[in-house]
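quick one before i forget lol
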Amino acid sequence: MTASRVLVLNSGSSSVKYQLLDMADRSRLASGLVERIGEETSRLVHEPLVGPGAAGGKREQVGPIADHGAALKAVAAELAADGMGLDSPELAAVGHRVVHGGTRFTRPTVIDDEVLAEIRSLIPLAPLHNPANVTGIEVARALRADLPQVAVFDTAFHSTMPEHVARYAIDAATADAYSIRRYGFHGTSHAYVSRATARLLGRPVEDVNVIVLHLGNGASASAVRGGVCVETSMGLTPLEGLVMGTRSGDVDPAVVFHLARVAGFSVDEIDSLLNKKSGLLGMCGDNDMREVLRRSGEGDEAASLAFAAYVHRLKKYIGAYAAVLGRVDAVTFTAGVGENAHQVREAAIDGLAALGLVLDPRANAVRSAEPRLISAEEARVAVAVVPTDEELEIATQAYELVTR
């Protein structure tokens, strides 16, 4: 029996998302989520997608799950109940999403003790994410010590940015001493979507230049030339760049000094303000784009202002990345907002006909889970919607590595 299955784990601070995929045909076998880990109201939702269990649909259990170890054991039990347990000989690897790989990890990597120590050492660069990623790896290794565990890094796809793009214009010795540079994030999504866009256009990925707009609660843009990232909007952390659900995106760095000196804010208070209380939430009190659009449609001035700021920043990055690439073949929207909010796509592309970007309003209004073109026939540059699939990308990279 050939081992062709990959379990993908995305471990957050109080959650674990997972999918089991069969790479023989790239099919999903099961998926689920454990949330509120460490609380009395922990919740596990498991959905078998094949086999006898699929007929019953989703299974849910609510009750205390003490830690990530207990969470993964509960996940393993659910998979075993469907005949797809972690002891299955068909399981080839576990693929772990790791947010920050620094400058060392620029490709998927089989995890050993040294690699795990390196990932742990990167926690200062991603204090909200890497600790949970490390915990997920530790628990999974304990459950199946014999199974290859593969780390797939959010930052890896962006490691191809030229040095003059990745560098901040600050004292070089200080930057080197403290690893201060632009790393970028959402890399698995940008990698998957840029290749999927080339397939949608029916062209080799090496021949396609694409601007990818990953618009979820966190949002980022990338400029991809021939399948290689040459620029992205997020930087040292996921705070830089676009206006997001709760993050400010680009601000004058002196805002930090001003808040400290004039308002008396502590470093932690400023961090919380810019990461958790800014963006759409800070401007209008809602970080859900659906609510922002509803309120704006009803004439709410704060929501309208927040939406205008969000779209303006998108336009700026589209224009900037068109200049970086020189030739743009497609602008592609993805992730929750990008895939579902036709108003955002319409507003972002409106007025960009000089760049060759023109929407077909009817195509743009269609809701679909399939990759599709929404540009007008006369457009010189394609506009696309491509649903992202980070789990498939992680599984693909992990499987290719362990079978190589």
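fyi The longest strand covers residues 27-35.
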